[in-house]
Amino acid sequence: WRFSAFTGAAYGASKHGLSPLVESLNEQEGRNGIRATLICPGEVATPILKTRPKPPSEDDIAQMLTPQDLGDAVRYVVSAPPRVCINELVISPTVNRIYTGADDLQGSDG
């Protein structure tokens, strides 16, 4: 959803390619009842966080979204009435470390 040097070029390019894909699906297939949603989550407290070069602290992890939070959002998207198309859903923790510039999220040169 937004650029981050931390994630790398390939990850960023693939993520940014999803927006036109979702828009194309909705434009071309909406009349056939097919809906697509681009879900853009902020940090989610999952075990993969421990594999980062600089893992976030336990206090930071405690403030992140949970898998349940994302599951609830997905459930809402897929259970919306057929007249509703949620084109994009951005969901982030209240304490958004991407906005606050957490040290462990800086790029290799940042």
Describe the structure.
- The chain has 110 residues and is mainly alpha-helical.
- Helices cover 39% and strands 7% of the residues.
- It has a two-stranded parallel sheet with strand order 1-2.
Any chance you could write out the topology, listing elements then pairs?
Layout: H1 9-29, E1 38-41, H2 58-62, H3 67-79, E2 88-91, H4 97-100
Main beta sheet, described? 2 strands, parallel
Name the average pLDDT: 88
Distance separating the two termini: 20 Å
Poorly predicted runs are none
Q: Briefly note the structural class of the backbone.
A: mainly alpha
Order of neighbouring strands in the sheet with most strands = 1-2
What share of residues are in beta strands? Answer: 5-15%
Counting DSSP H or I runs of 4 or more residues, the number of helices is 4
Shape: globular
Helix percentage range:
25-40%
Computed over alpha carbons, the radius of gyration is 16 Å
The run of helices and strands is HEHHEH
Keywords:
110 residues, globular, 39% helix, mainly alpha, 7% strand
Short description:
This protein is mostly helical.
